[in-house]
Amino acid sequence: MAALGVEPLGHVLGGRSVVEDDRWGPVEARLRLDHPRVSAETVRGLESFSHLEVVFVFDRVDPDGIEWGSRHPRGNPDWPLVGILAQRAKDRPNRIGVSRCELVAVDGTDLLVRGLDAVDGTPIIDIKPWLEGFAPRGEVREAPWAGELMRDYW
Amino acid sequence: MAALGVEPLGHVLGGRSVVEDDRWGPVEARLRLDHPRVSAETVRGLESFSHLEVVFVFDRVDPDGIEWGSRHPRGNPDWPLVGILAQRAKDRPNRIGVSRCELVAVDGTDLLVRGLDAVDGTPIIDIKPWLEGFAPRGEVREAPWAGELMRDYW
After folding, report:
1. Which of A38, B21, B92, B100 has minimal CB crowding within 10 Å?
2. Does position A22 have pLDDT exceeding 90, yes or no?
3. Contact A84, A69 (CB under 8 A)
């Protein structure tokens, strides 16, 4: 299928340099939006929001290592075989990550954030304000392994 | 900056054919994941989740019409000038949308969904299960215009 024209708007600066599974909550980093077309106008008003939704690319994943089938989350045989689109692992088609984090401050076109689970150097392809109105509607049900996996994540 | 290799995994089939602002909640559609590498294994176990996070491309937006500065959300002069990355409008850099919707059923590699705010034909670039553990942590604060805009959205 035809590739879509997606390009980085900037990168994660600081935070963790090594990919780890857990304890992302206190990690602070700077989102440096240095695309030539991004200016202070592009992020105007963002400070009215406490949380961001950040869309990024797991660029350290080798494209040849992308999973298209199923596997045990985190390789844990106690958990079921789960398709890559039924989990949030990084080795996924298109290698796209989506996470919510706290917006600590806006500094020009740099955004200071806390609790973003993306390492130093990660390309950012979109930033959106988090609106409670965009949370899931109705009761949420999830697989038991998912709650276990998240126990120490933040 | 260099383009990233992002390609559609499939498309929205059905639902709305015309872009509208409001009342997306009852809209049902089928996500047809017809990329040649997607199989039943790719979505195995997805039925254990009630909600999906869908990443898609607003492909009806003319790339030349992308906003990089600020404007009034929905063109409403009663609301402030807001940067495109401080709102969720479709005419944004990279044209990426992220939404949560209900997963009604899995039918092979088709996913039946309810309440996805993407029109018929929209390219899908990622599907993730919604985990409550990935919701924002801490108290959420948002701009007053955002709550007004969402009043009739679903």
Report:
1. B21
2. no
3. yes
- DSSP annotation of A37: T
- Other CB atoms closer than 10 Å to residue B81's CB: what's the count? 14
Tokens of B46: 């997805």
Higher pLDDT, B147 or B3: B147
Beta carbon pairs, A and B, within 8 Å: 272
Record the tokens describing residue B24, joined without a space. 């997306």
CATH architecture, domain B10-133+140-149: Beta Barrel (2.40)
Note the CATH number of domain A10-131.
Answer: 2.40.30.70
**Token pair belonging to A5:** 């024209």
* Min Cα–Cα distance to chain A from B59, Å: 9
User: A104 — contact with chain B (CB < 8 Å)?
Assistant: no
Least confident range from A19-23, A83-87, A137-141, B148-152: namely A19-23
ipTM of the assembly?
0.96
Q: Measured between alpha carbons, how far is B147 from A132 in angstroms, rounded to an integer? A: 8
CA distance A67 to B112: 23
